[in-house]
Amino acid sequence: MKVCKFGGTSVASAEQIKKVANIVTSDSLRKIIVVSAPGKRFSDDTKVTDLLIHLAETALRGNDTEIELQEVVNRYRLIAEGLGLNEEIVQVIEKDLRERLAGDENDPILFMDCLKASGEDNNAKLIATYFVHVGLPARYVCPKEAGLLVNQRPERVRALPEGDERLSELRHEPGIIVFPGFFGYTEDGTLRTFNRGGSDITGSILAAATGAELYENFTDVDSVFAANPTIVENPIAITKMTYREMRELAYAGFSVFHDEALMPAFRRSVPVCIKNTNNPDAPGTQIVKERDHSDQPVIGIAADSGFSTLFVDKYLMNQEIGFGRRLLQLFEEEEIPFEHTPSGIDNLSVIIRSEYLTDEKEARIIRRVKDELKADNVHLHSNYSMIVLVGEGMRHTTGLAARAATAIARSGASIQMINQGSSEVSLVFGVLKEDEIKILKELYEEFFQKSTIAL
Ligand SMILES: Nc1ncnc2c1ncn2[C@@H]1O[C@H](COP(=O)(O)OP(=O)(O)O)[C@@H](O)[C@H]1O
Ligand SMILES: N[C@@H](CC(=O)OP(=O)(O)O)C(=O)O
Q1: Which ligand 1 atom is at minimum distance from the Cα of 199?
Q2: 147-193, pLDDT tens digit by residue?
Q3: CA–CA separation, 327 and 334 (whole Å)
């Protein structure tokens, strides 16, 4: 039995959903079908999830929502018409959206979650209706009915293993199950969504809980490439990689697969395959436990922007017991997670994602580090990017960091931070945002275009 997830681009239009039905029909093992909300049909199109966020924000501001509501309904209407379905399903969707809009606004986060989740929920209902229309024995299954359990607020949303036993029963259900991605329910029945891109996580949870033989993740590219194809021209395809490699690359900027989606599949040893809905016969990328990395120590290079660094300098910091804990506690109190903490004898930097900072928090952190930790020097810099080289064989290959540093020097940029050692499979360079693309291109050339002679 296989679990298949179809991403936003795969279910963005009637034409795409017809391809999905063909893919499902062509392999009787494809039993659990996880779907996203309709995504982009062309590059400057708007995803339904973004339309829903706008709709929820309009409602929360107390403004009239009719125009925003109709924009969402019309996206589904267009799809339903293209699939030859009657107006009934569109009416079901419109009624559902109106009910959600009439819901409790007291907790704006939960109100927003409820509207965001409707993107996948209504698309799953629509796709199940279409499958039945073309003769497939399919039914929509609600994550609440199936038992996809998530934790309570205020913590970050994650699936609870307590839900696995009930979810495993999906395996024995007759026919095809169409399951909405992106959200689950707490024990007391409250809906919560995963982070953006989180339908990948739903697919992985179901694949793990049901003991699927394969988790197929269908998207709009033939495979995962060694670098982002929108930045590097014609990057090479990765045919096989390990869970750890994909996790590191996804975290560092390979948006093709969600970094939190690796763990459930990894824990139950379910192999993952990334495939193209527009070219399903292409072999795709396999994600497995181990690969032979003897001739290819670096498998991919990812880059992501939006980082800030707090630099703290204090004479004899290395001898001050508890300094690091107290510094990180400040971040905990401000509810800011940290990404890296490179250090020297008398200094420590804390690298965080800038999205967690506000002007107010920034000023408060700097003041508290000066006043409470008696630091000699404190400053915060924004506009950093992290470029990450990933590969299982990197640890055991000499001269790799030197090659990377030389390539970065060749690009004319300077390195702000290096982090190697903590992770066995990655080497992280902190650079200025303005240098990100040229460095990525230079590193790609060094590790993938100079052929493998130098490896
Ligand atoms: N290294 C990479 N390999 C493949 N695709 C990548 C990579 N880095 C970024 N991407 C982007 O990820 C996109 C697919 O992810 P996404 O848009 O989330 O798809 P979906 O709609 O299927 O969820 C690709 O179109 C590609 O532009
Ligand atoms: N629709 C949600 C969840 C998701 O996984 O979407 P996609 O498959 O289009 O990345 C989002 O846009 O975040």
Answers
A1: 23
A2: 999 999 888 899 999 999 999 999 999 999 999 999 999 999 999 99
A3: 11
Indicate whether residue 8 lines ligand 2 (CB < 6 A). Answer: yes
> From ligand 1's centre to the CA of 220, what distance in Å?
7
pLDDT in tens, 107-136: 999 999 999 999 999 999 999 999 999 999
Domain regions of the chain by residue span: 2-220, 300-449
Alpha helices by DSSP H, listed for 219-304, are: 243-251, 262-267
The structure tokens 């130098």 sit at 454
Is the CB–ligand 2 distance for residue 197 below 6 Å?
Answer: yes
Q: Model's pTM, two decimal places?
A: 0.93
Structure ipTM = 0.98
Entry field: residues in the chain: 455
Domain 2-220 part of CATH 3.40.1160.10 = yes
**Distance of CA 199 from the midpoint of ligand 2 (Å):** 6
The CATH number for 300-449, chosen from 3.40.120.10, 3.30.230.10, 3.30.2130.10, 3.40.50.150, is 3.30.2130.10
The pair of structure tokens assigned to 129 is: 């209706």
Among 34, 219, 447, the mutation site with the greatest number of ligand 1 atoms within 8 A of its Cβ is 219
